[in-house]
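#struct-pred
JK: can someone run the complex with xanthosine-5'-monophosphate? inputs below
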Amino acid sequence: MEKVLVLDFGGQYNLLVARRVRECGVYCEIKPYNMPLDEIRAFAPNAIIFTGGPATVFEEDAPRLDPAIFEMGLPILGICYGQQLMIQELGGSCRKAEVREYGKVELTHDGSSELFFGIEPTSVYWMSHGVEVESVGAGFRAIAHTKGCVYAAIENKEKKLYGVQFHPEVLHTVYGTEILKNFLYRICGLKNEWTMANYVGEAIAECRAKVGSGSVLLALSGGVDSAVAAALLYRAVGERLTCIFVDHGLLRKNEGDEVEHAMKETLGMNIVRVNAQDRFLSKLAGVTEPERKRKIIGEEFIRIFESEAKKIGKVDFLAQGTIYPDVVESGMGGKSTVIKSHHNVGGLPDCVDFKEIIEPLRRLFKDEVRQLGIELGLPENLVWRQPFPGPGLAIRIIGDITEEKLSILRDADAIFREEIAKAGLDRSVNQYFAVLTDLRSVGVMGDDRTYDYTLALRAVETQDFMTADWSRLPYELLDTVSRRIVGEVKHINRICYDITSKPPATVEWE
Ligand code: XMP
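RT: done, structure tokens with the ligand placed:
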């Protein structure tokens, strides 16, 4: 399989670089910038990309490279810090930029390089740097410039070494994807072949090879990742896979049944469903503090999974739906580390008897997981669901949780989702849901005074959920949703729309 190695210098967009390369249909992996040369050779990439990073090349302890990497005869694209480092190592020099460029900048290329093939001479690019290339070594030349930067892009055509001062991976760079495609297809000669339709056979074979004649246990959470991991393992090892679906009763309307139906009826898998709402609700009774809710739910989930697993006895593998961003973000991929303290529900069960962990999705991005799910025959509506937090509706009910509040929230949330889908916005709005606040206010219905709950609607647009903007939903849509919810769901008499971005707010209310 053709592949690209992305060497990570710690820039904030590094995961995006890898995602864009994969979107171009070329497999790639992110590794730390100091990956030893013999490991690079063993990985056998067809090309290398150096990412950007927060360091400057003048610093004493700035990340460096073994210069022998340039002798491997591989095409290389250096982005931002990656470009500066390449220049510095190969006979050129860098200096502090006179004009710091940050944000959208107009750039003009000279039309002479394959890197800009088919791209308008002048357009908008995303820059973020305070250092620039001052001079280039033998064999290099400038192929694009901005007002403040002579070497906005450079090439050494003979050695297939390229550098760009801008970030092609960021969507603000209008022709970013075209530039990556030009590098991958035209300069490196790679083919657009990494698709889930091509990968599914390989993924099944890999699981079979790993599991051999062993048995596998998997905890289904109701989320997309564990469902796709289950579907993949089922195709690979059939009945030797046992899935335990702990339904904590905090899922959205009909969601538990939909997951069970998809697994059982559509795929023919046998799953053990544990309906544990009562257990969760009694543990959560009177608890109002968000982090305590999360902790209780995580622990209870594991305890129930353990007691079910004990009934099954010893298994060879415990399967997990870990995906590639989790691998990279937990520091195993590259230099970048992102801390996601509250997003892991539970941790590993310590009383389950298993020999090894199997993570069949650990090489895939979320979009790839969804496409793989489709290839494996999972229904579209399950695979394309928006993200849903592990602790479920518990963190969307502000204050203490009761069965009545859950039922109110489920009904209101279902109406909101239905109307978003009707308006055709269910794929463009990245996450949307209702929150039941613990605020009550006075209203009037018919001739009667009411004193009922205020419901908040939240809808956000985001690339990575680290930052998000509130969706500018059409007023007409908000109006329909508001009228329907107040008309159809008892005990809600007021609706608010959340118009804060993240930061300073977060996506969820708790
Ligand atoms: P926040 O609220 O941190 O949410 O802006 C960002 C994304 O993470 C999801 N989220 C969670 N997911 N367990 C999860 O599995 C959690 O405890 C949790 N809290 C937030 C949230 O839905 C959004 O997609």
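RT: quick notes.
The two ends are 44 Å apart (CA to CA).
Residues 336-346 have pLDDT under 50 and may be disordered.
JK: thanks, will look after standup
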